[in-house]
Amino acid sequence: MSLQTNTALNNPVDYGTPKRVSEKLVTLEIDGVEISVPEGTSVMSAAMEAGVKVPKLCATDSLEPFGSCRLCLVEIEGRKGYPASCTTNVAPGMKVRTQTPKLADIRRNVMELYISDHPLDCLTCPANGNCELQDMAGVVGLREVRYGYDGENHLKAEKDTSNPYFDFDPSKCIVCSRCVRACEEVQGTFALTIDSRGFASMVSAGESQDFMESECVSCGACVQACPTATLMEKSVVQKGQADHSVVTTCAYCGVGCAFRAEMKGAELVRMVPHKDGKANRGHSCVKGRFAFGYATHPDRITKPMIRAKISDPWREVSWDEAIAHTASEFKRIQAKYGRGSIGGITSSRCSNEETYLVQKLVRAAFGNNNVDTCARVCHSPTGYGLKTTLGESAGTQDFDSVMKSDVMMVIGANPTDGHPVFASRMKRRLRQGAKLIIADPRTIDMVRSPHVEADYHLQLRPGTNVALVNSLAHVIVTEGLVKEDFVAARCDMKEFAKWKAFIAEARNSPEEMEKVTGVPAASVRGAARLYATGGNAAIYYGLGVTEHSQGSTMVMGIANLAMATGNIGHEGVGVNPLRGQNNVQGSCDMGSFPHELPGYRHVSDDATRALFEKEWGVKLDNEPGLRIPNMFDASIDGSFRGLYIQGEDIAQSDPDTQHVTHALTDMECVVVQDLFLNESAKFAHVFLPGSSFLEKNGTFTNAERRISPVRKVMPPLAGKEDWEVTVALSNALGYPMNYKHPSEIMDEIARLTPTFTGVSYRKLDELGSVQWPCNDHAPEGTPTMHVEEFVRGKGRFVVTEFIPTEERTTGKYPLILTTGRILSQYNVGAQTRRTANNLWHDEDRLEIHPHDAEQRGIKDGDWVGVTSRAGETVMRARIAERMQPGVVYTTFHFPGSGANVITTDNSDWATNCPEYKVTAVQVTQVTQPSSWQKRFEEFTSTQLDLLPKRETSKA
Ligand code: SF4
Ligand code: SF4
Ligand code: SF4
Ligand code: FES
Question: Is pTM, for the whole model, over 0.85?
Fold first, then answer.
C-alpha cells in the first residue's frame, strides 16, 4: 500500500466563513433547499453546505467575516433590504434566496465598480485561471463597464517587489482587506493596514514601508488570502500556474505543517499550506512556504563519491561501486578492530522509515548497538524525564489543545522563531484572553508583541531552570495550591510525599532562590499562583530546558508541576516539548538511541529482543552501544574507526567542534549521506547523495506525536531515495533487506511497536495524519495522553535537587553565552542558507546588552572575539536591549561563525545532552578572524577544490 498521490490541483472548498461548532442545530431554507447547520453559522456557509455558492470577494473561511465587498447580498423573507450573507447568521425557519433579478443587478453593479479600476490584463496576469475577481466577473455575468476606464484609478500604482518570495502589485488591489485580516487573525503580526479612506484607501505594510522594511515575517498568509494577483508568489509569476498538487509535510521544524506541493510536471511551483493539515490548519511560515529552493540548488551532490584519504580528490563512482566500497571498508575495519568499531548516526531530518532502517542496519548488520541520533543533542532529556515521571517519552497534547488553555507557561522556548506556526495559534488564544508566563533569560518576542503581553516574564539567569521550577513548586505546595484529589487518585503517594517534603524546604522558596535565579520572588509567587489557579494551564518548553547539565532534572521538574496542579490528562493543559527538527519525535520513537529498540524498549529486555530477533532473523546485542560523544572519545582512543552518518552534520551541530573534527579525522571510514558537502562530509571518505523530502515517500512525526505522510513529488535527483541506499548497504554487508516501498517498512514498525500497531499508509491516506499511540485501543490515534491514568500507571514525582552547572563565570570569563535560532534560518542552515532567507539573516551575530558592550567599548556591528574555556571565535556584535546584562547570545546557523567552537563538553547528567545554553565567555573587540576561523576557511576552500569540477557556492 503506497501513499496516494493526488493528481488534480485540489483547490480546497472555501465555505466563505469559518466553521462554527455548536451542538444546537438551526434549520433553514436556502433557494428551496432545507438545511440544518450549527448555530452561529453564516448564511453564506450554510448555503455552501446546501450546495449553493453565493458570490463573494471579501470573505474566505480562514478569516472572520468582514462584509465589505457587498457581492454576497441575499434576500431573506420578512427582512428589509439585502443583507450580506457572510455577516448574517442563520436563524430557525429563515427562508433565503440567493439568486433573484434584483440581486443579479446589484452584484453586476458592484463588479462594474471593481473592474473599472482594475487592469484588464487577464491574459498576461499571473493569477489568470486562479483569480477570484475573474471568477466572480464570470459568475455575475459582467458584460460591460459603463463607467469606462478613464476616471480616477490606481492602475499606475507602483509594484513592491522587495520581498524575495512574493510581489505586491497595488494596481490590482480591490481593498477587500483579506490580507490585513490574515496578518492579524492568522499570523498575529499586524504588519498591514488599510491607509486612508474611500477611493484613496490602500493596503500598506507598516508605515508606508515596503514589505521588506516592515514588520512582515513573510509567512505568506496574506498572499494565500488575496483573491487577486495583488499579492502573488514570484515563483508563480515566473513559472505560471501549477497543473497538479500533492499533499505532503514540511521538512523543517517540529510543527509538521501540511502543504500542497503545487507542481507543473516534475517542477515545484509553490508550496501552499494545506487547509486540512491538523498541525497547521492552513497556516505556514517563511521556511516551509517559501524556502524550498535548496532542493534544486546547484550545490546538491547527485553522484556517489569515494576517496582513500580526506586530502585526496573525490572520485565520482556508480552507486554499486560506492556501496560495495563502503561495505568492504566496514567489514575490513570490523575484522581489524572488532565488531564494535563502527556505528551509525540517524537524523531527525530523515523520515521514520529511514531512521528505523539505519538503526536496524546497525543492530542487525553491524551487529552492535552503536547507533545514536541528533536528538542526543536536543531533546534526549525530554525522553528520559517524561518517561520517568509520566511513563511516555513524548508530549501530552495536540496543538489544537492550546485553544482551550487559560494559562500558558513558555519555558526556554522561542516559539515565534522556532515554531512559528504554533506561535501564531498561541498568540490567537492569548488575544482571546489567555494568560502568559514566560521563563527565559532573554526578552523574546512573545514577551511583548502586538496585542500580546506576558503577565510574567521570569527573566532567569542561564543555568538556573531547576532552581526556578523548584521555587514555583514551593509556592504551590506551601500555599495549599496542590490539587490533592488529582494527586491522590493518579500519582504514587509515597513519591509525592518525598517530593512534597523536599520542595517545601525553605531553601527552595522564591526568596532564597532569587539569589540564584535573579528572578524577583514576588514574580515567582504570582506566576505560580496563576499557573495553579488560572484554569487550564499548559507548559510549552524547548531546548532552553533540555540543553543543560540538569536538562533531565528540569523536564522532571516540569512534569512534577503539572501533576501537582492536575494540569494533565485533558485538553488545554499538559507538558509539551516543542521539538526543533521535523522528525525529532520520530527518530527517538524509531529506536535511534543505543540503549533502546523502537518504542523506547531497553535492549537488555530479553522479551523485547526476542521479538526483534524473530522478525529480523539475527541475534541482537543486549548491551547498550556508544552514544555520539562516546563514539568521538572512542575514535580518539583508537577503538572506533568507521561511521555511517545519514542526514546529520555533527561537525557543525555538536558542541566543542575541535573535539568532533579531531574524532572524525582519526576515523578510517566516514560515510556521509546528505544533500550537500556539509561540514562532516569534508572529513568523509564516502559521500552518498541524499534525497530531499520532495523526492521520497515516508512519514515524519511532529511534536504532537502526529505521524504525517511525506509524499514524493519528483524523482530523486541522485536516482535513489535515502531508504534505498540503506537497504543496498545492508545487502552488501550480507544482511538482506528486501523492502519494495517504505510502506512495507512502516508495516514492520507497526508489527514490532505497540504504540504503532494501527499505523499504516492506508490509514494515513484515510485520516491525513494520526497521533500515536495508534492501536486497537485507539484506532484513530491519541490526541491527549494520560487521560484516565498515566502510561506508567501512577504518576511519579521525582525530587529535583538543584545542582548548579560546573560551568561558572570568573574574572576571565565573566559573561554567559547562550545559543538559539532565528525564524528565517534552520538548524545548521544547510538548507535555508541556500535560499533567499539569507536576506533576513546572513550571518550569526553576538547579541550583547548595551551595558556590557559599553564597558568593553563595543559598538553595534563591531567585530568581537568570543573566548571560552573550549575555544575562540569571532563574529559581529549586535547591541540588544532584549539581553540581560551578563548574558550574550548567538545563533549557530553558519559554520564559519564557529558558535560550537566555544561551547563546552558539559552535558546533561542522565543523557549527555550538551549544555549549549551555558558557556562562560569573555567578549573583546578584535580586528581579525580567530585562528580556528582561518584554519576553517582554508580547510573549506581545499575541500571544495577536491570536488569534481562543478558549479558550487561557498555557502
Ligand atoms: S492585497 Fe489582495 S487581499 Fe489585500 S486588500 Fe488587496 S486584493 Fe484584498
Ligand atoms: S507575509 Fe505574513 S507577516 Fe507578512 S504581511 Fe503577509 S501575513 Fe503579515
Ligand atoms: S512552522 Fe515549521 S513545519 Fe510549519 S512551515 Fe514553518 S518550518 Fe515548516
Ligand atoms: S463576501 Fe460578503 S460582503 Fe464580501
Answer: yes
